[in-house]
Amino acid sequence: MSSGSTLTEILINGVSRGAVYALVALGYTMVYGVLGMINFAHGEVFMIGMFACVYAIGIFSVAWGNHVLLNLGLGLLVAMIFSAGYGYANERIAYRRLRKAHALAPLTSAIGISTFLQYFIFLTVSKQNVGFPRYYSDMLTSNHIHLGGVDITYLQIAILGLTIVIMTGLFYLIHFTRFGIALRATAQDQLMASLVGIPVDRIIAFTFILGSALAAIAGVMVSMYDNVLVFDAGYRVGLKAFTAAILGGIGNIPGAVLGAMILGLTEALTTLGFGSEWNDVSTFAVLMLVLLLRPRGLLGERVADKV
Fold first, then answer.
1. Considering the domain boundaries, does residue 199 fall inside one?
2. How many distinct structural domains can be found in the chain?
3. Looking at the predicted structure, is the pLDDT value of residue 273 above 60?
């Protein structure tokens, strides 16, 4: 393989990985943009989506057979619903009653929910790794197109295409809809937003629901890509996505996407040069370097116009 083809492959792998991190990072940055708090249970919502999709596909396969596109689509929908439900419950339990408490109170509560969800899956679903049904994933991972001397799998195309569609839709939702106006008003001043008739509690709850649904999509993509599910997968990916949000500027949606892409490309280059075991070292080295030079992240933390 030529050096040009190798570089192209690195870019594709890095951007694909960054796209997954971006979908999860958006949940962190949206919640921070509205509440000014970090949702440390968000990674586990990602993990819930992975397991919900796999078990839903199993049920659908038994019910009416292995219809790949139908079962995958319905499995993704079930994953989004389950994750959105957990996200909503997280907001009600860990945040709504603690918004005016000391900052450590909701943080501690979120960490507690994170631990609970991890070990709930560990004790009730599976203590071992669970494989994603290859009959469904092989259709996207085995087939590919040839571009510029590099083979790009259908799954990588699906990840990039779906991420672009979601980012575009999210941008439109926030900047060109009544909900987006209400969301930005809530992010700036919850009291004033409530005084002009904006249902602040509903806006905040929907932010958790939307971010959780996006994390579920990322979870399904990762489980198909890796062909394995594990109960603590949300911790690892959640930590990387949180790092991406900080790298770009916490509370800044374009910053979260930029940070995620930088992390994805950094990991791809590190894997090529030193091996995958050095990925975490390079990731946090980049984070420390950026924060030393730009403490608020690459695009800056959003303060007045957070989302």
1. yes
2. 1
3. yes
